[in-house]
Amino acid sequence: MTGFRSYPRLHQGFFISTQTGFSYGVNVMTNKYNISEKLFALEAFSKKTRQDLHKIPELSGEEYKTSKYCRELMESFGYTIRQFEGYTGFTAELTVNPAYRLIAYRTDIDGLEMPDMTCNEHSSVHEGCAHNCGHDTHMTIALTAAKYLSEHRDELTHNVRFIFQMAEEDMRVPGADKMVEMGCMDGVDEVYGLHNDAAIETGCIRFNAGVMSSYGSAWTLDVHGVSAHGSTPHKGLDAIREATRIIDYMDYIVAKKTDPFSPAVFGCGMINGGTIPNALADYVQARGTIRSMDEETDKILKASFKEIVARSEAGGFKTTLEACGYPAVINHPQAADVIKNAAAAFLPAENIDSNGKPMTGSEDFSYMINATKDKLGAMYFLGSGNKAKGINNYLHANPYFVDDDCLLIGAQIFINIATR
Questions:
Q1: Would you list the DSSP string of 259-279?
Q2: Tens of pLDDT along 22-48?
Q3: CA–CA gap between residue 141 and residue 196 (Å, rounded)
């Protein structure tokens, strides 16, 4: 049984922590994270930008308002915009010296199909859609860093490209893979990204020089049987019974066909079938995900699909099992060092976990790393929680809060990378 988690309440312009009772103004922030004074001057811009974006979350592939908001800001900063016809993603580039290497920063821009329960003045105005994965945070960090770099071009030692990527959340909608196909990574020498995590304290980051996220795919199982009256089951083929057998067999595959030293998950999150209680269902659809931490295990899980379908069809069912997903994010050691050095320039050593555990979730940022010449890229987890303020929630939690103090930390890290 899980306990109730306390969340901050917003009242008359102040957060009041339900854990501590301490209140503080939303526009008051002391520079306790050693942010450069020039960047700290953008603190109000960063907070307003995140609040603006938090109000307008949009589903994967439908980020029209979000894309327009970000694109207009980047244009105002003097970046060269490249749009991709038929898609909401775009790139924004600043070239200061053709001889410089080109580095990219990727931010995802989509929201989640769930209500926003933050209940404050910048809650979502789009019913049933929320930024409960913190992509509003990611965009704000990109926009803040971009604004700073445009105003201080003399500090740049690299040309920079910001990639505003659509559809990270829904594996079924073209996202990073499509943007790479359309050329968002052309000419890029290095690429960096981040993901906020409100279960990690603001001022801390976590990453490693290897696997950072799982190989992950979303699968859809369709089982067609034969309906019959519940009193004469021998005259039909029970699609519900067959679907549950297959789902149970998925656990067997993990237990008996994969290396026990290689983590794997074969899970089902949805199952729908049947129309009345006294008849065998003639159709069932189930959906779920597979996760693994190495390529060989990923291949084993996917290869099992053919066996599952063959066994089911041998029993008389018409069965399909299809999947789509992302390869693992694998940080290049050199790029991981770049992140470490960029953070160490202003954060204390004890706040930088460079040997952190990977997440078992999946990220299509992997396509962008793999698109560079030497797979030279890395991502890290940026702490966006603050227990003292009552902010300590996991990704996709509802409500989902972030500590706005994390925004300038993320921006500072990329600025340090671009000006190193």
A1: -TTS-EEEEEEEEEE-SSTTB
A2: 333 344 568 999 999 999 999 999 999
A3: 10
Cβ contact 247:393 at 8 Å? no
pLDDT in tens, 235-275: 999 999 999 999 999 999 999 999 999 999 999 999 999 99
In angstroms, how far is CA 101 from the centroid of its own chain? Answer: 27
Q: How far is CA 318 from the centre of its chain?
A: 35
User: 199-212 pLDDT, tens per residue?
Assistant: 999 999 999 999 99
Q: What is the pTM of this model?
A: 0.88
214 with 365: CB under 8 angstroms? no
Ramachandran sector of residue 140 (left: φ over 0; alpha: ψ -120 to 50; beta: rest): alpha
Q: Is 44 exposed, middle or buried (0-12, 13-18, 19+ CB in 10 A)?
A: exposed
Token pair recorded at residue 298: 């990923």
Q: What is the percent of the chain where pLDDT is above 70?
A: 93
Q: How many CB atoms are located within 10 Å of the residue 98 CB?
A: 7
112 band by pLDDT with thresholds 50, 70 and 90: very high
Rounded to whole angstroms, the Cα distance separating 194 from 90 reads 18
Rounded to whole angstroms, the Cα distance separating 420 from 417 reads: 5
Identity of the amino acid at 90:
F
Q: Quick one: which H or E segment has residue 73?
A: helix 64-76
Edge-to-edge, what's the strand order for the sheet holding 190-201?
A: 80-83, 90-94, 159-165, 102-108, 190-201, 377-385, 205-206, 352-353
pLDDT digits (tens, 9 = 90+) for 41-81: 999 999 999 999 999 999 999 999 999 999 999 999 999 99
Nearest-angstrom CA–CA distance, 227 and 239: 8
Contact predicate 354/388, CB 8 Å: no
Is residue 161 within 8 Å of residue 91, measured between CB atoms?
A: yes
Residues 214, 301: contact at Cβ < 8 Å? no
Give the residue-averaged pLDDT of 316-326. Answer: 95
Report yes or no: 74 and 183 within 8 Å, Cβ to Cβ: no
